[in-house]
Design a protein that fits this description.
The structure holds two protein chains of two kinds. Chain A contains ten helices and ten strands. Chain A is of the alpha/beta class. In chain A, strands 6-7-8-3-9-10 form a six-stranded mixed sheet, sandwiched between helices. The chains are: A alpha/beta, B mainly alpha.
């Protein structure tokens, strides 16, 4: 097998006495799409910062054999990074922001057109970033990450702050990147939309790597597929009784508050709902 | 080095769009013109002064305003990115920390410098057209001195920026540095001269601790070559070093105040990886 593109060996990171990352090790090969899963505070963003070499850590991280601790600048040429929150200046036009990143990444200016087309923002080239929707900004950040044709993309909860429609657009973009053979490490805490999108899942729990395997193995270990059924206004007691008669006890039923994501899904156009799994 | 230039260009572009810098340029221009116009009034005749008198009038104003603007804008360079959550994004690019810092420093300094030149240039041009008495050399020397002071104070602002977790904290430190350098330093120096037997050499050494005072004395040396205005300290400078020697010592001191803060800020920023 080829040498891994990403090699993480016993990486630990502490803030005072608290270990945010505790001896995390894994490797990723070219073309893999990995989901980095875990609850908020599990250490996902910290691990991405270690991969980028922007914070100090114990252990060793290598990107294509380059140690990020000592050759961070060279390693970062191989990495495109999409942060969770928009990080491009709102006053800039899309092309200005991309020109700045292109210069830093040593990419020729003609690449700006290519990446804008990849994320389907060609028409917004001269638009100010502050005028773009959240989804468009996230796609623009992805365009910036693609400048210089990096071998590895690090995406930090890229859909966390997006509405349902923007999330779907971003997922379509991710599918295209996967099709193009990019190696992607995607941090998220949303497990429900990953099936078919990722080749492998890493689960961080309290800073330690709790799982490293395929998505199918993960869902199997988690007790099979989970369904969320909204039974508001449909006699919940009767349905729960019926479930009990089928052998689904109350220990397997969880009451959950309605979230804005649920509301958005409920009022989304019928066509969109049908496309969802 | 192209990464430094890219960051510098981005900083200048952001500064040109900011209302801070436009306000500073407008205030500088207006004050330069006002001081030149009103200066003659004190002598009984309303009109535009020549460059030497205008330069002297502007001296104290510039030594208050330019360091303040440089400290404030310098303090926002890194802390502002940290506050907006964009610092990690910048550092995630193929750029070394020192390159980002140097680019920020150059961009902020260049933007303030351009605004200063715009203000002084407009005032200087207007005065040149309105008066027959020319001392443009002194005026230009003074402008150069203010630019050097801007470089030094932006560097000090940069240290505040690197040390601070938030923009507000950095602003607080910058204002404190400004108050100490501009308001309290003189008082402490006067107190030391009164309470101790601080001679001319001691006074010169103390003066080198404050870039604003260095700029002030340098300006006075070239505005009033006999140095009478500096009293016994002026006599000491003339006797021991001469005008040329004093200029060399003070310029070296100012250059050290430009280089050292940037080096310290880079060192602290590199250590900030932890």
């Amino acid at each position: 097998m080829d040498a891994p593109l990403v090699q993480v060996e016993r990486v630990s990171r502490r803030y005072g006495a608290r270990a945010v990352l505790d001896s995390v090790s894994f490797a990723a090969h070219e073309g893999e799409v990995l989901a980095l899963l875990g609850a908020n505070g599990a250490g996902k963003t910290t691990l991405l910062k270690c991969l980028l070499g922007v914070i100090a850590f114990e252990g060793d991280v290598r990107i294509a054999g380059l140690p990020v601790a000592t050759r961070g600048k060279d390693a970062r040429r191989l990495i495109g990074y999409v942060p969770q929150l928009p990080s491009l200046p709102e006053d800039d036009r899309c092309e200005e922001a991309l020109a700045f990143v292109a210069e830093l990444r040593g990419a020729p200016p003609r690449e700006i057109d290519r990446v804008l087309e990849t994320v389907q923002l060609g028409a917004q080239r001269r638009q100010r970033i502050g005028e773009l929707s959240g989804g468009m900004r996230q796609r623009l950040a992805t365009a910036a990450a693609l400048l210089g044709d990096p071998r590895l993309l690090l995406l930090d909860e890229p859909t966390a702050s997006l509405d349902a429609e923007s999330r779907a657009e971003f997922e379509a973009l991710l599918a295209r990147l996967r099709g193009a053979g990019k190696t992607v490490l995607l941090s998220t805490h949303a497990l429900d939309r990953l099936e078919g999108m990722v080749t492998r899942a890493l689960v961080l729990h309290e800073g330690a790597l709790a799982f490293d395997g395929t998505f199918a193995e993960l869902t199997k270990r988690a007790g099979g597929r989970r369904y969320v059924i909204n039974i508001n206004g449909h006699q919940p007691d009767a349905i729960l009784r019926a479930l009990g008669e089928l052998g689904v006890g109350s220990d397997r039923v969880e009451r959950a508050p309605t979230t804005w994501a649920d509301v958005a899904r409920a009022i989304a156009p019928r066509r969109d709902r049908e496309q969802q799994p | 080095m192209s990464a430094v230039l890219a960051v510098t260009r981005r900083e200048v572009r952001a500064a040109v769009r900011s209302s801070w810098l436009a306000g500073y340029a407008i205030i500088f221009t207006a004050l330069a013109l006002t001081l030149a116009f009103l200066g003659e009034r004190n002598l009984g005749d309303v009109g535009f002064e020549n460059f030497s008198r205008t330069t002297a009038s502007l001296l104290n104003l510039c030594l208050l305003l330019a360091p303040l603007v440089a400290l404030l804008l310098g303090s926002g360079a890194i802390a502002g990115e940290r506050d907006r959550g964009t610092l990690t994004y910048l550092l995630a690019q193929p750029i070394d920390r020192w390159e980002l810092l140097l680019g920020k420093y150059a961009g902020v300094s260049l933007a303030i410098g351009l605004a200063t030149l715009l203000g002084f240039g407009a005032a200087g041009l207007w005065i040149a057209l309105m008066t027959s008495s020319m001392a443009a050399g002194t005026y230009l020397l003074f402008v150069a001195l203010v630019l050097l002071l801007i470089l030094a104070m932006t560097g000090l602002g940069l240290i505040a920026s690197v040390l601070s977790a938030t923009r507000v904290q950095a602003l607080g430190i910058a204002l404190l540095v400004w108050a100490v350098a501009v308001l309290f330093f003189d008082l402490v120096l006067i107190g030391m001269v009164s309470a101790t037997s601080l001679g001319g050499g001691g006074l010169l050494a103390a003066l080198l601790l404050n870039p604003i005072e260095i700029a002030r004395v340098l300006a006075i040396i070239h505005l009033e070559p006999d140095l009478q205005v500096l009293g016994p300290f002026g006599s000491y400078l003339l006797e021991r070093l001469g005008t040329g020697g004093a200029t060399a010592v003070l310029v070296a001191g100012l250059l050290a105040w430009i280089a050292a803060p940037v080096a310290v800020a880079a060192w602290l920023f590199e250590g900030g990886r932890d």
